[in-house]
TrEMBL record:
This is Bifunctional NAD(P)H-hydrate repair enzyme. It comes from the Bacteria. Its EC number is 4.2.1.136, 5.1.99.6. (6S)-NADPHX binds at residues 71-75, 157-163, 194, 298, 348, 405, 476. The gene is nnrE. One of its GO terms (biological process) is nicotinamide nucleotide metabolic process.
Length: 544
């Protein structure tokens, strides 16, 4: 798993080392320079006589350093000095009147070129460091940097406050305008130092201009903003550099990472593999209340995903014609009442209007799952999706998992007295998923290009899915898959409700991997994603 620590935690972990004189910046900068050299060498790979690709030479490669006022700029300058000593042609563009003096001296000594940014060519020279520097206007600087082989973005790191201002902001605006998008031809390789400058380090927001990176080299530990949407989509490939920090740091934050991203091995290790003693009830029965006569497909997709994810049994509740469609698609499904170990409520259920009695069934199941019908049935986990989200009129336990997309989350929040629209949720997914958790008590899985899961004291962020997964029915598949995963751990999740979030994050990972497996590199249908689940689970288990 990748653990991300807040800016405060990282600073707290750095403090004792800095006090002891440990050269953290040198370590960080040396590792940064090594990653840049390796990336460049691979990008310049040439075929040897045997046809094998060999790393190319990086001598003479042009490097543009974007340098801000703080230690992030210091990292960039020191890395630039290392690169200049290895024969690369380094130019630093200073976006502040004062920059890290040691870094500047190192770059000067290594033969790097240094220019100061001004609003327009011929502008008055600021006084960066000790020496007067030549100046260059932002537009000219951006044009020159766009012709480099690599741009090292050291404008802002974990000291960023709000949208990037000043020359740095203007330079990034101009570069964003003229550079091809990541992966585009003719684009320099953009390496972000610690974080892409200007992202919300702790919340993944984009308060102002941010240059999308092809690689982010981060120090000590991942930062929350690298994992959380929307910023996670601008980080490119990752590299976490160990600079010797001892995390978790002091008790200040309870010793917990701010955000966690699960990886394949975590999901494989926690996946329950049936043994000789198991039968369909120990493996978990999933009850599905989904679909209406108008929207029968959601019921089919939800039930199919629950079957494919290894539920011991799937029970379906709903109108007869929908039940017939479900059984025709998946003859394993039992269209009858009975005990369940987890519920999936709401896929294909409209928020209002004709519901064929489904709303009443979902309401009763949600009350039973939440433990509000004492004496009738033990509480069990539940997935509450789509139309069933409108049924949350009282606090839930955290073993109830809500699975809204941004629009549905906005509607839920408005129903609970908040003033927010879909775009607001998309701009600040962590904030609003947290708020929904606080207001409802439920675990909240917010769907999107990246998935955020918030439970009691825990936050997960998954970015496992190809863009092709954004297709009708994909959410129904996730609900069924998650229902089966919760049913398999029913008693454990009710006893330890904070674990529901980890199960939900694991479901997001499997869902994304299934989409990857199902897509031929192009469009993918939701039912194909459900059908890919067994192969994904088998692959995860084979690697454990
Ligand atoms: N503390 C350390 O010893 C280490 C720090 N490291 C680097 O240092 C970085 C943190 O350094 P700093 O604390 O100096 O912070 P930053 O380098 O992120 O920069 C903060 C500076 O930028 C300015 N600033 C803040 N918000 C701004 C905005 N929105 N627009 C324009 N200017 C803004 C402030 O005036 C401040 O001077 C890390 O991200 C990492 O790259 C690494 O070298 C590892 C060791
Ligand atoms: K940066």
């Amino acid at each position: 798993m990748i653990q991300a620590w807040s800016a405060d935690d990282v600073r707290a972990a750095e403090e004792p080392l800095l006090a002891a004189g440990v050269p953290l910046m040198q370590r960080a900068a040396f590792a940064l320079a090594a990653v840049v050299r390796r990336d460049l060498a691979r990008r310049r790979a040439v075929a040897g006589p045997d046809g094998e690709l060999r790393d190319g030479s990086v001598r003479g490669a042009r490097v543009a350093l974007l340098v801000g006022a703080g230690n992030n700029g210091g990292d960039a300058l020191h890395a630039g000095a290392f690169l200049a000593r290895r024969g690369l042609a380094v130019t630093a563009y200073l976006a502040a009147s004062r920059v890290h003096e040691g870094g500047l001296a190192a770059l000067d000594a290594a033969g790097g070129r240094v220019v100061a940014l001004t609003a327009a060519d011929g502008g008055a020279a600021p006084q960066p460091g000790a020496a007067r520097r030549p100046t260059v206007g932002v537009t000219t600087a951006a044009a020159a940097a766009s012709g480099a082989d690599v741009i090292i973005d050291g404008l802002l790191g974990i000291g960023a406050q709000g949208p990037m201002r000043g020359m740095g902001g203007a330079l990034v605006d101009e570069l964003s305008r003229i550079l091809p998008p990541p992966g585009g031809t003719g684009r320099p390789w953009v390496v972000a130092v610690d974080v892409p400058s200007g992202v919300g380090v702790d919340d993944g927001t984009l308060p102002g201009p941010v240059l999308p990176a092809d690689r982010t080299v981060t120090f000590g530990a991942a930062k929350p903003g690298l994992l959380l949407p929307p910023a996670t989509h601008l980080t490119g490939a990752g590299a976490v550099i160990d600079i010797g920090l001892a995390l978790p740091p002091a008790a200040r934050t309870g010793g917990r990472p701010a955000v966690v991203r699960l990886e394949d091995a975590d999901v494989a290790a926690a996946w329950p593999v049936p043994g000789p003693q198991d039968h369909k009830y120990t493996r978990g029965v999933v009850g599905v209340v989904a679909g209406t006569t108008t929207y029968p497909g959601a019921a089919v997709l939800t039930a199919a995903a629950a079957v494919r994810a290894g539920a011991g049994m799937v029970r379906y509740q709903g109108p007869d014609d929908v039940a017939r469609a479900v059984v025709a698609a998946r003859p394993e499904v039992v269209p009858a009442d009975g005990r369940v170990q987890a519920w999936v409520l709401g896929p294909g259920l409209p928020a209002d209007g004709v519901d064929d009695g489904q709303r009443g069934r979902a309401r009763a199941a949600l009350a039973a799952a939440s433990g509000l019908l004492a004496g009738t049935q033990d509480p069990v986990p539940a997935v509450v999706d789509a139309g069933a989200l409108a049924l949350l009129d009282r606090p839930c336990p955290a073993w109830v998992v809500l699975t809204p997309h941004a629009g549905e989350l906005a509607a839920l929040l408005v129903a609970h007295g908040e003033d927010v629209e879909r775009v607001g949720v998309e701009a600040e997914p962590l904030r609003w998923a947290r708020r929904a958790h606080e207001l409802t008590g439920a675990t909240v899985l917010l769907k999107g290009g990246a998935t955020v899961v918030v439970g009691p004291g825990v936050t997960y962020a998954q970015a496992d899915a190809p863009g092709w997964l954004a297709t009708a029915g994909a959410g129904d598949v996730l609900a069924g898959l998650l229902g089966a995963m919760l049913a398999a751990r029913s008693a454990e999740v009710v006893a330890h409700p904070e674990r529901a979030a980890a199960v939900a994050a694991a479901a997001a990972l499997v869902h994304g991997r299934a989409a990857e497996r199902a897509t031929p590199g192009g469009p993918v249908a939701a039912l194909a994603v459900a059908d890919a689940i067994p192969g994904v689970v088998a692959g995860l288990l084979a690697a454990r």
